[in-house]
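#help-structures
NK: newbie question, is this the right format to request a structure? protein is Phosphoribosylformylglycinamidine cyclo-ligase
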Amino acid sequence: MTSYAAAGVDIEAGDRAVELMKAKVARSRRPEVVDDASGFAGLFDASALLRYRRPLLATSTDGVGTKVMLAQALGKHDTIGIDLVGMVADDLVVCGAEPLFMTDYIACGKVVPERIAEIVGGVAEGCRLAGCALVGGETAEHPGAMGPDEYDLAGAGTGVVEADRLLGPDRVRPGDVVLGLASSGVHANGYSLVRHVIRAAGAGLEDTVPELGRTLGEELLEPTRIYALACLELARAVEVRAFAHITGGGLAANLARSLPGSADAVLDRGSWTPPPIFEVIAGYGGVPRDDMDRTFNLGVGMCAIVPAGAADAALALLAGRGQQAWVLGEVVPGTGQARFAG
């Protein structure tokens, strides 16, 4: 006789993982969260939206790509969930939406309760940093399809923005200023190239790299910076025309998505120094600058476009939150492109 356990699925391990993660998930709770005794769905009290005149719901979904392979290789699973929230919540905030809640999905070859709890604990911590609640999720065991130490995770989030506060390209005007908000490193994009470069160079994740002041693996697993709360505060305090989340595709391509067809953003490459990890990646792999530009954030994780007269106040507010930011460029008449000066 064959059982589910014999096929490689351990239901009891899944139940134990749920118990281990409960306390961590509770730290992300918002007052609007309503308990569902069955556990089949996450509930959120929509009466909280009554304070809006015309609430627009925003939704986003994403994963963390092959960065999970580095977490698996190093046996460090407690921060990859922060990356997941950063990818989702900071996409929501680009239109001015406040992230309200998230759900996650983990597929793995074998449920190791402690490992799953670490992953979900990172998601919960990311939600806390973004001001949203983790209201539910799913862990699926896929023996045969994935190795016992392999997993992948994805998530979806929902936010809300007042219709007349919706940010975007239509608000942007020539003469506006582009602010760059510093990233914490590579974030969660470009890791297929990173892994290729490391492999080709014969470098090890546990190698200490003098330029980084720590091991290569520690640097590459640095979690994604989450900008949601800082961006929302900025939009409340000063006039913000648009945000741009700098993810896959690099700085110019993502910033162009937040520009109207009648304007360009001209960026000053000399206004900031990319973190050393990008020089290390380029050096290890001989990666041309154009490819670095198209693949990585290069130290700019989010952009804010504001009127020139609001730039100083915006920078002061961000500095007060401990967020490094600077004037990255300006908006000029054009055709909807972001480009570097010169």
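mod (FA): yep, format's fine, and the tokens are attached above. The mean pLDDT is 94.
NK: thank you!
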